[in-house]
Amino acid sequence: AAATGTWILNRRYTFRAGRTRPLHREWLQYLSLMVVGGVVNYATYAACLMNSALVRQFPVIGVAVGSVAGLLVNFLTSKYLVFRTAHPD
Predict the structure, then answer these.
(1) What is the pLDDT of residue 36?
(2) Can you give the pLDDT at residue 33?
(3) What is the pTM of this model?
(4) Whose CA is closest to 63, among 47, 77, 74?
(5) CA gap 58, 64 in Å, rounded
(6) Is there a contact between 30 and 81 (Cβ–Cβ < 8 Å)?
(7) Most buried among 23, 69, 86, 87, by the most CB within 10 A?
(8) Contact status, residue 36 vs residue 69, Cβ threshold 8 Å
(9) In whole angstroms, how far apart are CA 1 and each of 7, 8, 36, 42?
């Protein structure tokens, strides 16, 4: 539900340039790529936790680092893959 909500908001406000792809394909691609961002988020958190005594002591640091990594992946995949605009030839 959250991913669908952010897809709607991103489509309407953040990346509103015209697109020609069918909605259901765009939505499925968005959901798939948000899963990738979630995996990056968790993997980054886990790597920080395993490799840093400071993060083991203060896990919120790993949560923050993982969140930023996931955010970057989600934004970049949204901008360059999901909501890209067609360039005229």
Answers:
(1) 97
(2) 96
(3) 0.85
(4) 47
(5) 11
(6) no
(7) 69
(8) no
(9) 10, 11, 17, 20
**What is the Cα–Cα distance from 64 to 73, expressed in whole angstroms?**
14
- Type of residue at 67: S
Q: What is the spatial distance between Cα 48 and Cα 26, in angstroms, rounded to a whole number? A: 33
Q: What is the pLDDT of residue 18?
A: 67
Using alpha carbons, select from 32, 41, 20 the residue that is nearest to residue 83.
20
- pLDDT at position 84 is 84
In angstroms, the CA 83 to CA 61 distance is 31
What integer pLDDT is reported at residue 4 of this predicted model?
Answer: 94
DSSP-based three-state secondary structure for 59: helix
Instruction: Find out whether 78 and 33 touch, Cβ atoms under 8 Å.
Output: yes
CA-to-CA distance for 7 and 53, rounded, in angstroms?
A: 37
Residue 88, pLDDT > 60, answer no
* pLDDT mean over 56-74: 98
